[in-house]
């Protein structure tokens, strides 16, 4: 990383941390971009140069939190005996976080799906997708998961099931996010289950 890119990332982190403090103090919907700029001590032009919309600031902070929390969470997950148990550990921790920060779910999902629509879906919880891909790669080698699809593609499928579970939870005040994530994982496992190769007639000779 160059000195310029490090400076840029420091500014982004400064803005995101200031915004998070405001969100916690006043609630996400009440905070304006102007307040974020003032709290972060940057010009409005600098703020908009880094983040076009408030949802992007929120996503930056959330992804930084994820990067910080992911290493100990993955260590806990890797202690589990199976792929399903490992992913369930990650999802259970995620469900608890979202239950405690429900106000952020709708704006985050708006940002995520807008990014996909605009063709910028790469900047979206990529650390979590990479973590899924690592778990899937190991599960493919142990024949828990089908190995005819690349790990990163399967990880993206799993992540979009994760986002769909969040949507279902937001749409039902009585729903349990942990249960929604469990349903999403079950659906993924049914589609991604290991399949023994079918011998061709030529191989049978």
UniProtKB/TrEMBL annotation:
Gene Ontology molecular functions: DNA-binding transcription factor activity; transcription cis-regulatory region binding
UniProt keyword annotations, A-Z: DNA-binding, Transcription, Transcription regulation
Keyword Cell membrane: no
SUPFAM superfamilies membership: Homeodomain-like, Tetracyclin repressor-like, C-terminal domain
One Pfam family linked to the record: TetR_N
Top-level taxon in the UniProt lineage: Bacteria
HTH tetR-type domain residues: 9-69
Record bears the keyword Metal-binding: no
DNA-binding stretch(es), residue numbering of this chain: 32-51
PANTHER family associated with the record: HTH-TYPE TRANSCRIPTIONAL REGULATOR BETI (PTHR30055:SF234), HTH-TYPE TRANSCRIPTIONAL REGULATOR RUTR (PTHR30055)
Protein name per the record: TetR family transcriptional regulator
Organism: Vulcaniibacterium tengchongense
